[in-house]
Predict the structure.
Amino acid sequence: MNEQQRNPYSSKYLCKLIVEYRKPLLIILAAAAVLAVIFSSPLFITPLYKSTTIIYPTSSNSTSKVLISTTYQSDKDIMNFGEDEQTEQMLQVLNSNRVRDKVISRFNLMEHYEIKPDGKYPMTKLNKLYDSRIKFRRTEYNAVKITVLDSDAKLSAQMANDIAEIYDSTMNQIQKEVAVKAFRLVDEEYNTLWDEMHQLEDSLNTLRKLGVFDYESQVEMLSRQLAVELGKSNTQGIKNIQEQLDILAEYGGASYAINERLDNDRLQLSLVKSKYEEAKMDATQDVPRKFVVTSAFQAERKSYPVRWIIVIITVLSTFLLLILCIVAYNQSKDFFRREAEKESATKNKGKHPEKE
């Protein structure tokens, strides 16, 4: 048994086979290259154009906390770029059904991708195409890269830029759903306090009409006057002062309690008003939730398919397959030849037996 039979996959053996079958190899490889060129043409594969947008999230999601809050935090400034947490939030929102549905609706992707709504599994096909042509990836610098592949170069760039804007509106919409409910609660508390203060003011006005203004100072002043009138033995003056003291005795406690209640309500109203202003801003104002670092532009050349890569892969794959087929063919041919030689040797040995 020679070296080639012992190791049929040695380099010498393979080189010998390539040289031996060079003509059919060249013909088949040339045919494979031509077919690869033909089948990678626009007649068989739709060319796709790529557009990309790179955006950063803002560091703060609450406008009021940054713009009107008295406790300033430099790391939550609306002008700062977001970090890991904000980037992850951005990716989650971009991959959500809210953004997907808006993109599909705005660009009518069902019709654009030529999917029949009454066909079999239209939404499954649509979502599969959407996921394969629209991708969101986190960069090494905590930004988010939006990549869109489409057969229309202009539409591809427009979609990439619009997705960034859709993210903005979606984030504002999500946060407003919470902010509006919070504003209603704060507004209700604010109005309740305001109404209560008005009722207390009305009660004080009623007491003021009765002559009750400042209980403690009035009692002190009237007590001094009463002592003076008693010294003068002025009966009418004593009577008038005593009437006023009786009124103060009857309504003075209520006046004192109402004033204390008003002071507490004013303090509470001041705190609620700051929350009211913050909640109102969050519920009514829209602010950008991202920084656009790179805007998409219309691609000048297609990104898919890359024909030269397809041709090279096809030729290499065909070449390797042909080598395996040739090796298998030669090994099987050698096997049957050896079996035939053994059978022939056995027959010859039967015809000419050795003499004893």
